[in-house]
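Sequence design from tokenized structure. All designs in this work follow the same two-part layout: the structure record, then the generated sequence. An example of the structure record is given first.
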């Protein structure tokens, strides 16, 4: 949940609520396409091969790992790179940041903020950047990139925001119609020394 500060809001503005990260992943929507939920011998061999030889995975030439975001509110995460592999998770939040950890043809292995990994089709991902607020306590969104800057809002852990840019130890984000700065170590979705620009 975003808790907007009283002095930063005009009268009558509603407080926006965001789903917690725990609700982002639902149980598997269905098993494998053959209805049994079991992978074929060939699929099992491919899965074992990927796990044993991650460097053998075909790459497009783009940097791996890298961050991306989910395009839609329903993204099937499979156990392997293909529609024959069963769906293990269904992510239900567009804009959620994920880390691409491997590529195979048109499939991407992704990892979320909790470390859950699986395969999705490249068409379900966007190059736009986002972040997830981390930690166990409220985070302060500030007007400028300094610890003494005016507070714009208080953000609960698990809130997702659009990433605009990062400089030094601060990242500028858009959330709930507001723009401000969070400390880099308060978010997930950007690397420690990565430079991000608009």
């Amino acid at each position: 949940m975003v808790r907007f500060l009283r002095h930063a809001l005009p009268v009558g503005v509603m407080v926006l609520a965001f789903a917690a990260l725990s609700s982002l992943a639902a149980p598997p929507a269905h098993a494998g396409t053959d209805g049994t939920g079991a992978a074929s011998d060939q699929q099992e061999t491919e899965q074992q091969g990927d796990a044993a030889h991650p460097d053998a995975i075909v790459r497009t030439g783009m940097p791996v790992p890298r961050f991306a975001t989910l395009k839609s509110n329903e993204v099937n995460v499979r156990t392997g790179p293909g529609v024959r592999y069963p769906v293990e998770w269904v992510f239900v939040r567009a804009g959620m940041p994920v880390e691409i950890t491997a590529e195979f043809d048109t499939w991407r292995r992704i990892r979320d903020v909790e470390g859950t990994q699986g395969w999705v089709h490249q068409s379900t991902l966007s190059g736009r950047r986002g972040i997830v607020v981390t930690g166990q306590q409220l985070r302060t969104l500030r007007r400028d990139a300094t610890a003494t800057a005016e507070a714009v809002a208080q953000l609960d852990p698990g809130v997702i925001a659009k990433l605009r840019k990062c400089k030094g130890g601060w990242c500028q984000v858009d959330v709930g119609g507001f723009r401000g700065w969070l400390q880099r170590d308060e978010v997930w979705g950007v690397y420690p020394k990565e430079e991000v620009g608009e």
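The helical segments are 41-52. We note this feature because it recurs in several other targets discussed in the main text.
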